[in-house]
Amino acid sequence: MDFPVIKKGSYILVDTPDMVIHNGTTQTVERESNPDSEYLKEIKNHLRTFKEVVEYAPNQTYIGNMTPDQLAERKRPWYNEPVEGANRYGKYGEIMPEDEFYGLMKLSDSFDLIKLEKSFVEEIKAKLSNHPMLKDKVDLLKEGDDIAEIEKLVEAHTAEGLYIDGKLVGCVKRAHEFDKNLDAHTLLENLVVKASGALALMHLCDGNGANPDDIEYIIECSEEAIGDMNQRGGGNVAKAVGEVVGCKNATGTDMRGFCAGPSHALIAASALVKSGIYKNVAVVAGGCTAKLGMNGKDHIKKGIKILEDCIGGFAVLVSENDGVNPVLRTDIIGRHTIGHGASPQAVLEALVLEPLDGAGLKITDIDKFAPEMQTPDITEPAGAGDVPTQNYKMIGALAVKKGQLDRKGLPSFVKEKGYPGFAPTQGHIPSGVPIIGHGRDKILSGELNNFMIIGKGSLFLGRMTNLFDGVSIVVEKNEGLKNEGSQVTKEEVKTMVAEAMKDFAAYLMQEN
User: Fold this and answer.
1) What is the pTM of this model?
2) Is 490's pLDDT higher than 70?
3) Coiled-coil ranges per the record (predicted)?
4) What is the CA radius of gyration of the chain?
């Protein structure tokens, strides 16, 4: 069977300390419900600098400058162990500062919703002129606006402010007086997901293995909804992102599934390529302002800086089998069905045990598992523990229960079969897909034979169902293209059948 391949992956982070304060829902709800709280007074003293964000080891791992194995060897907590000589650019992408990101948001703004102050525009134009992906787009940034006009819009509550170090430098205007789906708050969220998704896709299509013109279809799998009062989630982030990047040959659509969205999208992309409908499909996701500083109160209580200060993004290119890149095993798909039940054991049986059993594989045959890959530095102070390790323990326990692993081997299973978490808690961003960049590299180098991507989603959050959700897929080493000369094509089969029928008809005529 000829499987599609993962040709490339890209990962980006955007350091957004001011957005933590002004756009993260933990902070916006606190400001609305308890405006004089000590938390709001303290938060500005617990924000990291851009240098600290770049030097944070999980962030360096996310963009490809450090392997997960190297991260695991470092002393924890990682926020106390900065990486010396850390670079904002990595093998898979970059960590962008907030001011440059405002410039990218403006470049992604199709309806002149963003206003930036004049001198600020000149500052970011100078910075972006040195950016490898954006230097050719700098001239598209028009002259900025007077700060007085921006202040007037923000004070009238018809725009959301954009800040740098607490100073107002711009705003996002509402697009409709009465439509809440087009208010300034929602449009800011949507412009952020669009711009961060575009940055990830730019790094995917940087000419090193892929170009914008190569992409035929885009699936965007974040957790935002684009629309107006008549169709709240009508879409389409995918085409909006593709337009920014210049994927003029692509169409696309949005796919949603809470944290499981990326895995659903990856499987859908694999099916589209395997069926022959498209040769190159990009799976893309931008990040989420709402989750910035989500656990900020717990971080401050523990005396640490707020670690949820980055917007995340990623892009993956799924292509026809080239005989080299790792294949997506479309015949080993795990799915949590409506009838499975929501217990942790039922979920893992559906996503791990059942698909592997169906393929004649054991849990121990998989080299690495990639469930929720949140950074434990973030989740442990909030009382959620080390989420990836918890998943590895449950998968190992399932292997023990099924007689595939000796109980004594459980500690080594947890260490050998999983990577430490290194992704931001941006919902869909840490869900399985962070392994793709490193996993692909390790398969190509011969260090791994396979890995399993596990996406899980909590559907109850939308208040439409109490059901859980999840899908999984195995990625493995490419055994090379089959010898086409030894294969019989559909046309050849038709010809052989026609010749056989012709011979049989001639035989019948001779008998008569």
Assistant:
1) 0.93
2) no
3) none
4) 25
The DSSP line for 298-317 is HHHHTT------EEEEEEEE
Residues 6+ apart with CB under 8 A from 437: 9, 10, 11, 64, 91, 92
CA distance 300 to 315: 33
Structure tokens at 382: 């909030």
- Residues 163/98, Cβ–Cβ less than 8 Å: no
When mean pLDDT is compared across 343-352, 355-364, 482-491, the lowest value belongs to: 482-491
Beta-carbon contacts of residue 386 (< 8 Å; ≥ 6 apart):
376, 379, 380, 421
Q: What single letter denotes the amino acid at residue 73? A: E
Q: What are the tens digits of pLDDT across the range 417-453?
A: 999 999 999 999 999 999 999 999 999 999 999 999 9
**Tens digit of pLDDT for each residue in 51-63?**
999 999 999 999 9
How far are the Cα atoms of 278, 348, 509 from residue 214, in angstroms, in the given order? 10, 37, 56
CA distance 68 to 438: 8
The reported pLDDT for the residue numbered 499 is 77
The CB-side HSE value for 12 (13 A sphere, CA atoms) comes to 31
Domains of the chain: 5-476 (3.40.47)
pLDDT for the residue 502: 76
